[in-house]
Amino acid sequence: MKQTLNQLLVDLDGFSQTEGVIFIAATNFPELLDKALVRPGRFDRHVAVPLPDVRGRMQIIQHHMKNVQIAKDVEVSILARGTPGFSGADLANLVNQAAIQASRVGSREVNMKHMEYAKDKILMGAERRSAVITDESKRVTAYHEGGHALVAHFTPGAMPLHKATIMPRGSALGMTVQLPDMDKDSFTRKEYLAQLDVCMGGRVAEEMIFGEDNVTSGAHNDIMKATDVAKRMVTLYGMNDKVGPVSYQDDEMIQLSMQTKLVIEGEVKGLIQVGHDILCSRLGTAFWLVEYVALSFISDSRLRSLRQAAEDRAKHILKTHKEELHRLAKALIEYETLNQEEMKDVIAGRPIRR
Questions:
Q1: Domain 135-264+298-348 indexed as CATH 1.20.58.760
Q2: Element (DSSP H or E) covering residue 161
Q3: Cα(first)–Cα(last) distance of the chain, in Å?
Q4: 175 CB contacts (<8 Å, ≥6 apart)?
Q5: Distance between alpha carbon 168 and the CA centroid of its chain, in Å?
Q6: Res. 259 pLDDT band, cuts 50 70 90
Q7: Cα Rg for the chain, rounded, in angstroms?
Q8: Domain Peptidase M41 spans what residues (predicted)?
Q9: Residues that are catalytic
């Protein structure tokens, strides 16, 4: 309210003798604050509170475990490294969900298995074991998630795999989760391109195994994420040669010329389409999709190099990695959930040890 703001400004400017009084305020939306509040002499010292790093997560987890019976096999450092991007509230919920699961199964202590269950629930959503899934739908989901996992495993710059599951969680029929080895504050162009490849891996695997006419709507979220990543690369991060190092915010798009809009739209679509076509070859498909729609904005030499690289990778992956996709899908159908080590064993042709 204006009255509150005006009274706060009066006190901050020191019209009354209130020595020894310090004003501290916190907000999740600093961009919405009145400029009169944050000018020099008022709230001019800003303390940013980012998400906790590994050491911070370790201390937060230890703090919340004080009132919980913890088993000796619980490694706080492993939990902290496996929860990048978790806030303090997420970590508190992690310990609480693990304690609930331990009590549900009749355990007197919270062990590492309960912690992993709680982490998966937060990352991937609650399991829907009551959902009735047909064998054909389960098979499609298994190849979809296997495509994600296989592309993530073999793509340079992709984040390491954490888990893949075809157990329905939340609104998803399956999920492949990747976690970085350490905290990351920025990403390279190579890593963003790897994200595009992994996003399109599930859809490409469906096309390869079941045919173009039998691709499902399961790739909806993948396409949304890929579009968002490609759009940010082109309009915000300057990672596109055609558009260049210029920032175009969403609210500025209406002011741009039609030519600039078409270039941006073409480059965004080109990033995803090129990545999609390369993945068709990576996973061993024997056909190309319809000729590139948006590649008129990419130079002929770049297009030839992309095609040549895609062809080379297609020959190599077709000979060596198509069998891995079948093995991954078969293992997911059998076990429903695979962790990082188990996926590596399947890809390497080793039996899963449980």
A1: yes
A2: strand 161-165
A3: 61
A4: 124, 125, 145, 163, 164, 165, 169
A5: 18
A6: confident
A7: 25
A8: 132-276, 300-346
A9: 145
| Phi, psi (degrees; rounded to nearest 5) at 163 | -155, 155
**Distance in angstroms (rounded) separating the CA atoms of residues 272 and 131:** 33
H helix or E strand, kind and range, residue 5: helix 2-12
CA dist 166 and 169 (Å) reads 9
54-124: CATH architecture: Orthogonal Bundle (1.10)
Contacts of 192 by beta carbon, 8 Å cutoff, 6+ apart: 229, 233, 237, 239
Residue type, 236: L
What single letter denotes the amino acid at residue 194?
Answer: A
Gap between the Cα atoms of 279 and 200, Å rounded: 7
Which tokens hold the place of 211?
């045919």
Q: Both tokens of residue 4?
A: 């509150």
Residue spans of the domains in the chain: they are 1-49, 54-124, 135-264+298-348
pLDDT for 36 beyond 70? yes
